[in-house]
Amino acid sequence: MTRAKLDLIRKMTPAILPSVLSCDFGDMKSELARLTSAGARALHVDVMDGHFVPNLTFGMPIVAGLRRHTELPLDVHLMISDPLRYAPAMVDAGADLLTFHVEAVEDATYTAKEFRKLGVGVGVALDPETPLSDLDGCLSFVDMVLVMSVKAGFGGQPFDSVSLDKLTLLRDNHPGLLLQIDGGINAETIGPARQAGCDLFVVGSALIGRDDYSAALGELDQAVRSADATPQARVK
Ligand SMILES: O=C(CO)[C@H](O)[C@H](O)COP(=O)(O)O
């Protein structure tokens, strides 16, 4: 049952999740080895369908390939138009935490309940322009909210600070929810996100491709620790 991995993820917070989107896909085995030895504790996996978002990445075979070569929890972010259609196969492929976009579905509560039946951790994501009120109703059936700090679709975009207000509101009103942020996270933006109550930080271009993954993860970890040490921190 992969919900056990969800408990693992809860226990590891605050945590930085490398986004494999920025990896060298021709050399994933060594990317996985480098990330693991640098101390990554879970991986963020971006699935894009060229329809819900204009970019196209990969599907179940790649998720299954990652699963074969790592024990780390796989946090799969579905940027696809029909998440319910592919969710069971993604779970079979090895997803531990499966996130759909609220903008992609007609009924987020129904979708979250159906995902729950698959035995995985369930996340709901929202783009920067989507109001938090669009999550009304579904929050009782999800484990995590993924607050996008860029419009879903591409790595390497600048951070949108509208995400910080959303994190603050979610943290104040839903203390039990895991909160994740994705897009433009680096050593400068990770601190404010932590102070706004975020637990899980997806990092792509500020980490992957750097010469020394340990040093890059260390800098990000240090920025989280500094944020926790500041008096205005509103983290749990
Ligand atoms: O979901 C994503 C894009 O839709 C990526 O995970 C995200 O953008 C991470 O990349 P970066 O840290 O370079 O912004």
TrEMBL record:
Substrate binds at residues 19, 77, 153-156, 182-184, 204-205. One of its GO terms (biological process) is pentose-phosphate shunt. InterPro entries: Aldolase_TIM, Ribul_P_3_epim, Ribul_P_3_epim-like, RibuloseP-bd_barrel. GO terms for cellular component: cytoplasm. SUPFAM superfamilies: Ribulose-phoshate binding barrel (SSF51366). GO terms for molecular function: D-ribulose-phosphate 3-epimerase activity; metal ion binding. It catalyses: D-ribulose 5-phosphate = D-xylulose 5-phosphate. Pfam families: Ribul_P_3_epim. The keyword Metal-binding applies. The keyword Metal-binding applies. Keywords: Carbohydrate metabolism, Cobalt, Isomerase, Manganese, Metal-binding, Zinc. Its cofactor is Fe(2+); Co(2+); a divalent metal cation; Zn(2+). Its EC number is 5.1.3.1. Binds 1 divalent metal cation per subunit. Pathway: Carbohydrate degradation. The active site is at 46 (proton acceptor), 182 (proton donor). Gene3D superfamilies: Aldolase class I. It comes from the Bacteria. A divalent metal cation binds at residues 44, 46, 77, 182. Catalyzes the reversible epimerization of D-ribulose 5-phosphate to D-xylulose 5-phosphate. Belongs to the ribulose-phosphate 3-epimerase family. This is Ribulose-phosphate 3-epimerase. It comes from Novipirellula artificiosorum.
